[in-house]
């Protein structure tokens, strides 16, 4: 992974952080892998070969708590300033990384140029067991969510802190989205998560490309050949406002 790359590893506000330097002259853009740094990395590996810096910061939870989102925003601002990069970059969100990257884009749209979401969690209630997901992991997810947001069974039903509850900033700031999902995903149910964002974008004139992966579950993320993702990202850089 990231062969022949210069990699900076350091602490940012007591969290482990990584910045991967491109293998060719830098183009000024950064790619932020919001979660699962070393999972399905072929998109990020391709981007460092095209002049992009890739960055990552470890979170204390994977459920996009307000504190972790604000820390991530400060980290991205730090990376842009330290390495002389553009203020806006590309956010990569796989699974719960989609929850983190979409939430940050909604709270800090000034930082995001393009969103690449891959089987993204967009609806926390869906992963907490209030939807169609019946996998055994739902019980552990629910406990993590309760701990992150100080919720209980009774307060969960009124929780409105998911990305699907605050999508308008993405439209207002014209943030393009490329969205991948597997039609056999039984963990992050598409119609409860990514489909809500897809429908909102199409209804409100947003720029979105959706790639449906036939006979694929929650894994693997990404594409064997990431070219369609790269082409979308590079075609829409600079459109966000």
Topology (SSEs and partners):
Elements (H helix, E strand, L loop, with lengths): L6 E6 L2 E6 L9 E4 L8 H7 L4 E5 L8 H17 L6 E6 L1 H12 L4 E7 L5 H4 L10 H12 L3 H4 L11 H5 L4 E6 L11 H10 L4 E6 L13 H10 L5
Parallel strand pairs: 3-4, 3-5, 5-6, 6-7, 7-8
Antiparallel strand pairs: 1-2, 2-4
The CATH architecture designation is 3-Layer(aba) Sandwich
Helix content: 25-40%
Q: What is the CATH topology descriptor?
A: Rossmann fold
What integer value in Å does the Rg equal?
17 Å
**Strand order within the widest sheet?**
1-2-4-3-5-6-7-8
Counting helices, strands and paired strands, the structural category is: alpha/beta
Kindly report the average pLDDT value: 96
Q: How many E strands?
A: 8
Low-confidence stretches: none
Helical run tally: 9
- Globally, the shape reads globular
Main sheet specs: 8 strands, mixed
The domain tally reads 1
What keywords describe this structure?
8-stranded mixed β-sheet; 241 residues; single chain; Rossmann fold; alpha/beta
Can you describe what's shown?
By secondary structure, this protein is of the alpha/beta class. It has one domain: Rossmann fold (3-Layer(aba) Sandwich). The protein contains nine helices and eight strands. It has helices spanning 42-48, 66-82, 96-107, 124-127, 138-149, 153-156, 168-172, 194-203, 227-236; strands at 7-12, 15-20, 30-33, 53-57, 89-94, 112-118, 177-182, 208-213. It has an eight-stranded mixed β-sheet, with helices on both faces. It is globular and about 50 Å long. The chain starts with 6 loop residues before the first strand and ends in a 5-residue tail after the last helix.
